[in-house]
Amino acid sequence: MHLSISTGTFYMVPFAKTLELIRRAGFEYIELLQYWKGGRWEMGQHLRGIPPAEALKMAEDSGLRISSLHDGGGIVEEAVPSVISRSTYEYMQYGKIPCVVFHPPMKYTGDQADYLARAARDLKQLRELAVVCVENLFPVEGLSTSLLDPSDMLAFVTEHDIFTTIDTTHCAQTGLDLAHTAKILRERVRTVHLSDYTHPQSHVFVGEGTLDLRGFIRALDHGGSHALTLECDVKYHEYDEEKTVEQLKQALAYMQDITQEGGGA
After folding, report:
1. What is the reported pLDDT for 265?
2. What's the topology of domain 2-262?
3. What pLDDT, on a 0 to 100 scale, did the predictor assign at position 100?
4. Which of these, 85, 97, 166, 265, is most buried using a 10 Å CB contact count?
């Protein structure tokens, strides 16, 4: 299991600087959070205006390896031909992407069964190209968000022969027990978005919150897991470079410790 970090941890920091900080902290693998904008949502601003080929070249030149790509979309709309972002195909065209992580299907209004079926049709297109994972989300105001219950997620990914990404903060925001969620989804988990949580603060650095992350890691199937990815929230306006690098080093050491205890990375 690769120990990775989401570039979205620094979504407001210039991408070149993001890669530098990650390297200085000792990480070898990254999950690219690609730029996405839809309605009032905007994600991955560090890659805004940077074409996929250029982003991949920058990552390669930095010496970092890509564990996964995170497609920030997932909203089903009539005017949008696919829940898969066009840039996802571009990333896969220009570089080897072993795993792609998607948000669960979401819609502003309408019946969930309809857009789950449409999303499944889209995601099946990628199964021959990469491991396809659907991440658990939390109830989002103004959106009908699917697959909030781990049993529903398991049924969906099993039926369509894809996999899942467990986001630990999203579990906490939904009121789910981490270890129980891991046991339900165990056979279909391929990646984890790892962060801690202290209400109401989300995506806190690991070891700084209240979640039982050790128990969660023990409940996972380490033989089947692809990557454990740190996905925390560096407050851009409070960002201090040296403090952040030290925080990342501590987080990586924590990840190494709990994975060795839980079955080995």
Report:
1. 38
2. TIM Barrel (3.20.20)
3. 97
4. 166
